[in-house]
Specification:
Blueprint (H helix, E strand, L loop, with lengths): L31 E4 L10 H9 L5 E2 H8 L3 H13 L3 E4 L10 H13 L2
Antiparallel strand pairs: 1-2, 1-3
């Protein structure tokens, strides 16, 4: 059977190199990835190179990278932790969602702004 358009030639599980856990600390799937100026080593794998190329124009999350690479998020985490450990990427935790607003604080703020008129 020949691969059709969009099908991977290499199974996604081979990206992990046979490892069952990533080399670095656990990453949130919404962690923001930023490429560093460090050059890639000549022996850098093709999937690692593709990930770095994705990040040349700017930052993406782990999930976005997985979608672009057509890999499961879990396999992408392996690539990311390898590149972070090698100093090729920075991984920033996601920005936490805002908590619920205190309605009385907002009302007092509005009263204060209206009094400036």
């Amino acid at each position: 059977m020949t691969p059709g358009p969009g099908r991977r030639l290499i199974p996604a599980y081979l990206v992990t190199g046979g490892r069952s856990t990533p080399t670095g600390p656990a990453l949130d799937r919404l962690a923001v990835l930023i490429r560093t100026d460090a050059a890639l080593a000549p022996d850098t794998g093709s999937e690692h190179r593709r990930l770095c190329e994705l990040l040349e124009p700017g930052a993406l999350t782990v999930v976005e990278c997985a979608a672009h690479l057509d890999l499961p998020v879990s396999a992408t985490v392996f690539l990311v932790t390898d590149l972070v450990a090698a100093g090729r990427l920075h991984a920033r935790p996601p920005i936490p969602s805002a908590g619920e607003l205190d309605r009385s604080l907002v009302e007092r703020l509005l009263v204060g702004l209206r009094s400036l008129h």
